[in-house]
Amino acid sequence: xxxxxxxxxxxxxxxxxxxxxxxxxxxxxxxxxxxxxxxxxxxxxxxxxxxxxxxxxxxxxxxxxxxxxxxxxxxxxxxxxxxxxxxxxxxxxxxxxxxxxxxxxxxxxxxxxxxxxxxxxxxxxxxxxxxxxxxxxxxxxxxxxxxxxxxxxxxxxxxxxxxxxxxxxxxxxxxxxxxxxxxxxxxxxxxxxxxxxxxxxxxxxxxxxxxxxxxxxxxxxxxxxxxxxxxxxxxxxxxxxxxx
Length: 244
Hints:
Layout lengths: L22 E5 L2 E7 L5 E6 L8 H12 L3 E5 L16 H7 L2 H18 L4 E7 L3 H6 L9 E5 L6 H5 L7 E8 L5 H13 L4 E10 L2 H4 L5 H22 L1
Parallel strand pairs: 3-4, 3-5, 5-6, 6-7, 7-8
Antiparallel strand pairs: 1-2, 2-4
């Protein structure tokens, strides 16, 4: 594995303060949070962690990406079954069985496939947080539908999926110093595989933070706040660079 399956650290975190400015509506056949520009020439799709598209933290991230000049979509890839509380009150094993890779991939493919059908020439970037990182990585394979990807504290990504990444589709990885899913060994293995295939990539490692920092981190902790904000800044610059 290039990253381990989601674990208990994926089921907890902190709520962030702010008021979402986007709307929830149907988009390409899936209930979706939509924010940002009205046009579809530069688009970012966020593939969420297990808290889904109604988590205020992720909606606020989408709004900030929208402020940077993108149309942003957060499709519901969890079939209306997102976790609602950041307090570990879930039977994670049962939850994961209902959200297996085949079923989840079908939702992602449906959304992106319909988008591409309607907007074949648009720039399409994908962001994957934790659970969603696997599906973001899949979309920058040679047969994937995205142009560029960025992932934060990834889970469930296989070595084969890393090896399948297209050299023409850049990847940004934002990693935590302490992460049982994306461990030091798996991080180095990912780097090795990307370098061996000549991929365009960047890996940022943030000290003093743990898994989930980019979405559900404690903003009262200066190290976490910095890492969260820097991850978003890096993602915007990454997409700006490759969308030109």
